[in-house]
Amino acid sequence: MSNPMEQFNIKPIIPIKVEGYDISFTNSSLFMVLAVLSCLVLFAFCLKKRTIVPSIAQSIPEVLYEFVSNLLKENAGPTALRYFPFIFTLFLFVAFGNLLGLFPYAFTFTSHLAAVGGLSLIALLYNVMIAVYHKKWGFFRTFMPKGIPPMLGPLIIPIETISYLSKPFSLTVRLVANMTVGHIMLKIIAGFVFVMGLGGVIPLVFDGCIVVFEIFIALLQAFIYTVLSCIYLSDAIHSH
C-alpha cells in the first residue's frame, strides 16, 4: 500500500523562482483554478436559458443563492446583505474545493493549512475593514470593552487581541482536520482493495460508503465555514 500521506504532497507543475522565492504553479494552485472554473462553468450552463419558471438546471444556482442569502440574514442580519458576494464566494470556493478533492488523483487544497489559512486571513482582513468602516475609531473598543478599569488594560487588551486573531485559526483548523482525516481513511481502505484480491470487495463497498459520507462532510464543512464567517461578519457590523 502506498503512503496515505502522499496525496497531500504539494508538487510544482510550472517551476517559477523570483529573487530566490519559490512561487511555482503547483498542483494545489491548479485545483484552486479548477474549483473557480468549475463553479463558473456550472453557473454559466445552468443560467444559459433563464425563465420565470425555473428549470431544474436554473434551480441549482437559485437554490444556492437563496441558501447562502438566508444564512447571511439569519446570522448577520439584513444589513449584511451588501456583503453577500464575498460570503457567497467563500462558500462556493470551499465547497467546490472539498468536492473536487474526492475525485481519483485529485488534490484537496482545503486539506492544507497554508491554503485555508490564507483564505481565512483574507476573511479576517475583510471583516476588519468592514468593522473600521462601520465603527471608525470605535473599532478599537473591541480590544478594550467599555466598563473595564483602565488599570486592567495591559491584561485585557492582549487577551482580546488573541481572541480576535484566533478567528481565522478556528476556521482553518476545523476545515483542514476534517478534510485530512477523511482522505486518509479513503486512501488506507482503498489500499486493502488491491492487497486482499477477491476479498477486497468488502473494503471496496466500505470505501464507497465512506465516499458518500465524505460528500456529505464536504458540503457540511463548507456550510460550517460559511456560518462562522457570517457570525464573524456580524460581530464586525453590530458588536460594540
Instruction: Output the number of helix runs.
Output: 6
Number of strands: 4
Strand content bin: under 5%
Shape: globular
Radius of gyration: 21 Å
Measured distance between first and last alpha carbons: 55 Å
Give the strand line-up of the largest sheet. 1-4
Ranges where pLDDT stays below 50 over 5 or more residues in a row are: none
Number of domains: 1
| Fraction of helical residues | 55-70%
Rounded mean pLDDT is 86
Largest sheet: 2 strands, antiparallel
Which structural class should the secondary elements be placed in?
mainly alpha
> H/E order of the elements?
EEEEHHHHHH
Structural features, described:
Strand 2 (17-18) and strand 3 form a beta hairpin. Helices cover 68% and strands 4% of the residues. The chain has one domain. The strands form two sheets. It has a two-stranded antiparallel sheet. The chain has a two-stranded antiparallel ribbon with strand order 2-3. The chain has helices at residues 27-46, 56-76, 84-100, 113-135, 153-195, 201-238, and strands spanning 12-14, 17-18, 21-22, 25-26.
Compile the SSE list and pairings:
Elements: E1 12-14, E2 17-18, E3 21-22, E4 25-26, H1 27-46, H2 56-76, H3 84-100, H4 113-135, H5 153-195, H6 201-238
Antiparallel strand pairs: 1-4, 2-3
Helix pairs in contact: 1-2, 1-3, 2-3, 2-6, 3-6, 4-5, 4-6, 5-6
In short:
The protein has six helices and four strands. It is mainly α. The termini are far apart.
